[in-house]
Amino acid sequence: MMTTLRDAAFASKAWPFEEARRVLKRYEKQPPEKGYVLFETGYGPSGLPHIGTFGEVLRTTMIRRAFEVISDIPTRLICFSDDLDGMRKVPTNVPNFEMLKEHEQKPLTSVPDPFGEYESFGHHNNAMLRRFLDTFGFEYEFYSATEFYQTGQFDAVLLRAAERYDDIMKVMLKSLREERQQTYSIFLPIHPETGRVMYVPMKHVDAKEGTVTFDDEDGREWTLPVTGGNVKLQWKPDFGARWAALGVDFEMYGKDHSTNTPIYDRICEILGQKAPEHFTYELFLDENGEKISKSKGNGLSIDEWLTYAATESLSYFMYLKPKTAKRLHFDVIPKMVDEYHQQLRAFAGQDAAQRLANPVYHIHGADVPASDMVVPFSMLLNLASVSSAHDKETLWGFIRRYAPEASPEANPQMDQAAGFAVKYYEDFVAPEKSFRLPTEAERAAMEELKLCLQDADKALDVIARKNAQAGRDDPLPQVDWHDDEFLQSIVFAIGKTHGFEPLRDWFSALYEVLLGASQGPRFGGFIALYGIEETVALIDRALAGELAAG
User: Fold this and answer.
1) How many domains does the chain have?
2) Which of 30, 58, 205, 437 makes the best surface tag, with the fewest CB within 10 Å?
3) Does 469 share its domain with 515?
């Protein structure tokens, strides 16, 4: 089985396997001297961690898992926080703005925590990131740049950067405007008195002594060692230097970094190491189509997503089309939940190649769970809407009637989803509900739908008329008031016989008149879940104008 799985993995077109094969090719001649393949993700803790940061770790983990299927070389994953970076501007989505303003340009681990919970703002944001990552059960090692610089782990590469200062500066100066070239240095000294990260030109770099000499803003000259956390690297050189120091084999980053890739690579090579493999993903957009930003705090946070859906739905969203820009807003959540469970149900019947192409394999690895969702999440939202449910027990009353064998104990995913559906309904569906009165044509069709739901002969008659209208002599279905398909055939037949063209206008009318929404579920399934008598009563209320008036 393992041979079959590995063979399938080598042939798989799933993007994690394509990337894993690129990483493996680095060592087709000999295994890594360090004894493992190193995957890295970088994080700038200048603001509260956003969902894009989580996406980098998740997607890198997916590639790491894929690599472990095709290779026996051990792997490590490092999440590196650039927390020695100076706070260039104060984020707008944190408290104590004025207090933070006083600490601009100080390393993030020297800026007080505006929340008063940790020893610094950098420590706070690092803790938030780690909590988010731990929620999803990632296996990773966390590295702090502050610790990395101050404990000497970066010293050898920093001394090498001093030795090869001119070569690295040549690479950097080519990418800068002439005005910026005059003041640029790859080294950023940390002022011994103020503690601020200084963006000043170097008067002298002494490779032999491993020191830099510069003037501060007051014209005073200072000489500092490049080692021991006295100096940090500008962020672009830091990228390449970090790769060289750690021996990184793979790192992914957003499209906004893509033009810098040749710079990162070349600096890594100047510092004596082979550049890693890269993967560039498209950026996440907020509801207005703008790039999400840590400092703005726009777009969804991880906590916000997890208020309305399980972690796996977010992982599923992250897996899909990483090279396509995607809008990250609340309205994508129901679709992701339902698609994730569709893929879970499909997984059981798939062969090895199909399973490796299924997103749930990359979310769960070899231990893919079964779905116990007997009702789609989108249907639960509509059920919450028509029943005005404010607790999941209300929804379970309908679910048990629809699927008597289901229970909160036997269907924990379903139970969790019911709770999420109520919360999502209260926050997003209820405020937007807008009912309208039916047109005369819609009223006539809904009157007939109500009659068909009360009389089997009328239901079969409308289906027969629809068949005759289409020139077909199909056998009539078996009457089953609990069957989604039978109920859907009634709804479909009424739309056809009443001349709705296109037919989606009929379903739109049902959603807008009965549910107060612009879109909705497969209506036969909704009737089966909500109940025949309840649906008839709902139609009566809509036709009497009670829903639109409310």
Assistant:
1) 2
2) 30
3) yes
Domain contains 89 = no
Which of 529, 488, 536, 526 is closest to 404 using CA atoms?
529
Are 416 and 447 contained in the same domain? no
**Rounded to an integer, what distance in angstroms lies between the CA atom of residue 283 and that of residue 279?**
13
Q: Are 129 and 49 in contact (CB under 8 A)?
A: yes
Same domain, 471 and 507: yes
| Full-model pTM | 0.88
Domain range spanning residue 461?
440-549
Same-domain status, 426 and 477: no
Pairing status of strand 211-215 against strand 204-206: antiparallel
Has residue 382 been placed in a domain?
yes
Same-domain status, 517 and 451 = yes
Residue 357 CB-half CA count within 13 A: 10
Q: Are 451 and 496 contained in the same domain?
A: yes
Asked whether the beta carbons of 433 and 385 are under 8 A apart, the reply is yes
User: In a structure prediction context, what are the per-residue pLDDT tens digits for the chain, which is 550 residues long?
Assistant: 445 789 999 999 999 999 999 999 999 999 999 999 999 999 888 766 677 788 899 999 999 999 999 999 999 999 999 999 999 888 887 899 899 999 999 999 999 999 999 999 999 999 988 887 888 889 999 999 999 999 999 999 999 999 999 999 999 999 999 989 999 999 999 999 999 999 999 999 999 999 999 999 999 999 999 999 999 999 999 999 999 999 999 999 988 888 999 999 999 999 999 999 999 998 877 766 676 655 455 567 788 899 999 999 999 999 999 999 888 888 899 999 999 999 999 999 999 999 999 999 999 998 999 999 999 999 999 999 899 899 999 999 999 999 999 999 999 999 999 999 999 999 998 898 999 999 999 999 999 999 999 999 999 999 999 999 999 988 999 999 999 999 999 999 999 999 999 999 999 999 999 999 988 889 999 999 999 999 999 999 999 999 998 7
Whether residues 488 and 519 share a domain: the answer is: yes
Is there a single domain that holds both residue 510 and residue 533? yes
CATH code of 471's domain: 1.10.10
Kind of pairing, strands 326-327 and 284-285? parallel
> Which residue, of 412, 432, 452, is where some domain finishes?
432
